[in-house]
Amino acid sequence: MNSFKTLFFSFLANNISLLSSKMYKNIQFYKKYLYFEKILKINCVIIEKIYTEGSVEMENLQEIYKKHEPKNFIEPELYPLHRVKQGLRNDNGTGVKVALTKVSTVIGYDVIDGHKKNLEGRLVYRGYNVEDLVSYYEKMNIFGFERTAFLLIFGKLPTQEEIESFHNELLTIATNTMTDFSYKTSSIMNAMQIGVLKLYGNDENPDNDTLEQRMIKGIHILSSLPLFVFSYYTDVHAKTYWETYPLPNKSFAENILYMARETRIYTPEEVSLVDKLLIVHADHGGGNNSTFTDVVISSTGTDIYSCIAASIGSLKGPKHGGAAMKTYEQFKFISEQYGYITDEKTIEEICNKILDKEYYDNSGLIYGIGHAVYTKSDPRATIIKEECRKLAKEKGTTMMNAFEFYSTFERVAVRVMKERKGMTVCANVDFYSGLAYRMLGFRKEIFTPLFAIARTSGWIAHHLESRQSDRKLIRPAAVYVGKYRNVEEENND
User: Burial letters for 394-420: b for 16+ Cβ neighbours within 10 Å, e otherwise?
Assistant: First the structure.
């Protein structure tokens, strides 16, 4: 070993001398050589230490990164200084306008002379208020999600012949080609992403760029997701694999409940609640994070599978689609400590402790209260609240007590937020969605995947609209606020 070490360092020394003698006339190159020589000699010392001591103490990469974190942080005051809209939000809280859409819109305020005026919330699908659509479906005694998905994708409410064709494509033709449990992941959402990308691999012509082909591929993605989710979900819990829909002549909502339950039993009120959950989660304007993700990636011209998979990744985030689970967990924590309380004074104390960061996760957030757009009301929450009330009556005293707890908490929390922060806020869709999923018996890990299944219809619509109407690559600018440095000067030590 010693003879090898002597030979190695002799080789390095001879080569350094040889390089030096041949390059000294070229001053610039010689300067670079001197830097190289210095680094080489440092490495020689390290190598020699390895030979003499057996190992070298090295910093862990995580420790190195943590040490340099402060220098990489961008100070908040730099955003207004450079007129950058952080989070693509204006100073008054409104969203920066980055696109045009005919698919849907969200209305929670008006802007008059630069000031926000709060309004009752409206969610509009292709020109129709979602509350009017729900009322129409109830009046006609029909399930609405399939019609809502058709409306979003095709731009019109379907005729009977058209909905039959759509239903056939959605529930009869498609089969589950996604499920493969050879990969491991603790997240159903990540498994869904992998599954969607596997559909690309099973498609004989996945990059076909015609709008009609992209539409069909999108419907097949929407069709495959429930089969995959409940095969994955029940593979863990009930060992059931769904290759095709068990009830092809029934609604989307009925099939979901049937696949989700080992008993395969459900009531009309339960199906109605699932159908409404799917409808209100089907789309939410073009500016929400997952839809914007879809539109940004669609602008590159890539396949629809990649766009939907990316949108699922966005929706997984706790600030977006994962909010229903956060709300459910917070209220589960409160009810375990206090029961299903309806005493407003006690609830007010809880709200104040939460806002003071002295309760639950100390985040200072009352999950399910407040929204980026809605101010006076969230129409989705209004619809789901009423459905929860109906189902609670059917299920009996315990669930009715739970509903009254949520309803009272909503009323008090809105009042406390107004008193403490001067804000007009409302319960958002996540507030009652967590209760709805609980009443239906879904485990919390299925909350966001159900959201993703519904929202896929909106993602398909926005993807098609983007490819048809705006083929420009979305490529915004970023302001560099770092230092400009000299590599030779800063590496002389």
Answer: ebeeebbbbbebbbbbbebbbebbeee
